[in-house]
Amino acid sequence: MTQPSRKYRVAYLVTHPIQYQAPLLRLIAAQPDIDLTVFFQSDLSLKAYRDEGFGRSIRWDVDLLEGYRSEFLPAIGRRDTIEGGRPFNYGISSRLRRGRFDVLWVHGTALWFNWVAMLAARMASIPVLMRDEATLISANRSAAKIWLKRQLFFHALGRVCAGFLAIGTLNRRYYLENGITAERIFPVPYCVDNGYFADRAAAAAPQREAFRAKLELEPGRPVILYASKLQRRKRAGDLLAAFAALREMNPARKPYLLFVGDGEQRRELEERARPLAGDVRFLGFMNQSELPAIFDLCDVFVLPSDQEPWGLVVNEAMNAGRAVIVSNQVGCGSDLVRDGVNGFVYPVGDAAALAKALASVLRDPAMTQAMGRASAEIIGGWDFQRDLDGLRAAIRHATAGRLT
Question: What would be the CATH architecture of the domain defined by 8-191+383-399?
Fold first, then answer.
């Protein structure tokens, strides 16, 4: 391989090790033209911790630190929590200077320390790249708040940041709507480790019927899957209502509905599901390594959320070659879901429309399988290579005329 003419020194600031990001960071660190150092603010995710969204203690079963250089920033007080002003980190300025970094890549704008880091980088003449997941649908904002955010917040952000890394179409549109010019926006999409999920789903396929029997599901009946936190914002109740309506349609292929996940609504949903006999199952939280088998088991995956910036679990299901249905408030729908091709996008909160979409996907096994194949093809082109290409382009833009 030809050696690169430049090796870019990249500092990446993020709250804590994230299971979705770890494989991307390993890949970036392996590139011959990028020297990556990751700075974490918290070690929250490295041990068992209480996830308020799931309403329980969880511990990830995948390695979050292997394969790339990282450092946990010092903090005053506890570093194993992310809330309010905590953790109270320090030391980023000296590390940026010592590392002689070419760019600082920051994930998110909500934390005060991220702004401290961006200002420290600016004082050290280090250009900043911002990756955030906000979209026009990710929060309810009044007209006054939208105006103020553009005039004040984005005015300041635009002065501090040299480039913006868009996770998808809606995120890019959000930057444009708030005055960030197109030449400063680079596609670094929200992806998962496609190979991991596709390979493990394929490996699970030979044991599919045994897994079905373990869950006491009758052979031949289609499976509808929900896998996310059982929070009100996720609107799992809409799916339950749509499933009840689907049963009333008396489809020839009587489906099951599986809920994977935990959270504040679980008991309420279980109570609502009682009249649906054994056709609705609540399987609880499943860890990262367990998910490919449940994706392989299902015929269609549904994410009915409201104000969902992206929805990476949809990427995962598509890697198993499954049809997907999402609400129009799920950010990934604009990029990954094509109506009638690999699934459907329906109006959030419209259980009748969701039931109709489910009936369309499950009407014919051949159609269901064709949609699943289309999902696999679409997600095959939505991968980490796109992230590398976009990140490199953003780095070149940010450092133009700076490196010698």
Answer: 3-Layer(aba) Sandwich (3.40)
* In the chain, ranges of CATH 3.40.50.2000 domains: 8-191+383-399, 194-380
Strands 185-187 and 103-107: unpaired
Amino acid residing at 231: Q
pLDDT reading at 128 higher than 70? yes
Per-residue tokens: 68: 């790339």
**Closest by CA position to 172, among listed 309, 292, 315, 269:** 309
3-state secondary structure 287-335: CHHHHHHHHHHCCEEEECCCCECCCHHHHHHHHCCCEEEEECCECCHHH
Kindly report the pTM of this predicted structure: 0.92
Distance CA 193, CA 380 (A): 10
Instruction: Grade residue 252 by pLDDT with cuts at 50, 70 and 90.
Output: confident
What is the residue-averaged pLDDT of the chain? 92
What percentage of the chain reaches a pLDDT higher than 90? 81
Cα 283 from Cα 290, distance rounded (Å): 12
Closest CA to 182 of 196, 169, 195, 200: 169
Query: 302 with 226: CB under 8 angstroms?
Result: yes
What CATH number was assigned to the domain covering residues 194-380?
3.40.50.2000
Torsion of CA 183, 156, 138, 333, to 10 degrees: 10
Asked if 201 and 295 touch (Cβ cutoff 8 Å), the reply is yes
* pLDDT tens figures, 257-305: 999 999 999 999 999 999 998 899 999 999 888 999 999 999 999 999 9
Ordered strands of the 280-284 beta sheet: 280-284, 256-260, 223-227, 300-303, 323-327, 343-346
Highest mean pLDDT among 50-64, 70-84, 234-248: 234-248
